[in-house]
Amino acid sequence: MGGPCVRMRPMSDKHLSTQFDADLSGISARVLEMGGLVEAQVAQAVSALTHFDSDLAAAVLQNEERVNQMEVAIDRDLSAIIARRQPTARDLRLLIAVSKAIANLERVGDEAARIARTAQRLMSAGVSTRLPVGDLGFEAELAIAQLRKALDAFARLDTARALEVLKQDDQIDQEFDGLLRKLITYMMEDPRTISSSIDLVFVAKAIERVGDHAKNLAEVIIYVVKGTDVRHSSMADVENAVR
Predict the structure, then answer these.
(1) Would you say the C-alpha torsion 162, 164, 167, 172 has a positive or negative sign?
(2) What is the dihedral of CA 202, 204, 206, 211, to 10 degrees?
(3) Nearest by Cα to 222 from 211, 231, 213
């Protein structure tokens, strides 16, 4: 992830205790660890599908529970910090944002597991070599890059970097639309590919959702730093909020 800083609070607040800062720093490091894990999960799941690697698909599914446990543990510790430290409104906003972030990361892990299960099913049933399985790799690269950028922005509370994620979200949507059209063409030309093609549509959609979760993470960063909820806002309004 390019060695992002694990301290989420570049600003200093006199009223915050050293222990509170330490708590936040520790939570930050664990969020980034969880982010790195789910990023790897997506990459491995897609690789398992494109290279027909059943062992890699199994490894992704074995790690699914670890991601779930990380979300539960971080959420539990967030609740303890809120109860113990009685944070100010802005600090509470940050802690709530962390909770939203790990929820999105957990869902990325779910998408990786969904892809891995589909890979296993396709390997068992057999998939036509004519189908554009390799094209899924490019869509996945875009989504993983978005997730990595969002995590980097989250580590630094960098709104400019978060804005880049939001501006590039359409690229993944366009790639998904192109894959969908291609798969529909295959299904129309050869009905025998319908079952496998539908599975690949669901994989493409899962990858697109990874990009959506990266976008959600970027929106959380802007909310924390600027105090503005930019969900469902136009790009012009988001840019104004970030300025």
Answers:
(1) negative
(2) -160
(3) 231
Distance CA 231, CA 216 (A): 8
CA distance 198 to 118: 10
What pTM, to 2 d.p., does this model score? 0.86
Look up residue 6 and give its DSSP letter. Answer: S
- pLDDT per residue as tens digits for the range 125-144: 776 667 778 889 999 999 99
**Nearest CA-CA partner of 136 in 200, 44, 42, 52:** 200
Q: How far apart are CA 221 and CA 37, in angstroms?
A: 20
| Token pair 């359409």: residue | 170
Q: Residues 111-126: pLDDT tens digits?
A: 999 999 999 998 887 7
Classify residue 80 by its DSSP letter.
H
What gap in Å lies between CA 112 and CA 124, rounded to an integer?
19
Where helices occur in the chain by DSSP H, the ranges are 18-50, 54-85, 89-125, 135-156, 159-167, 169-189, 194-226, 235-242
> Token pair for residue 152?
């980097």
Place of tokens 């200093």: 12
State the Cα–Cα distance between residues 95 and 31, nearest whole angstrom: 12
| CATH class of the region 18-242 | mainly alpha
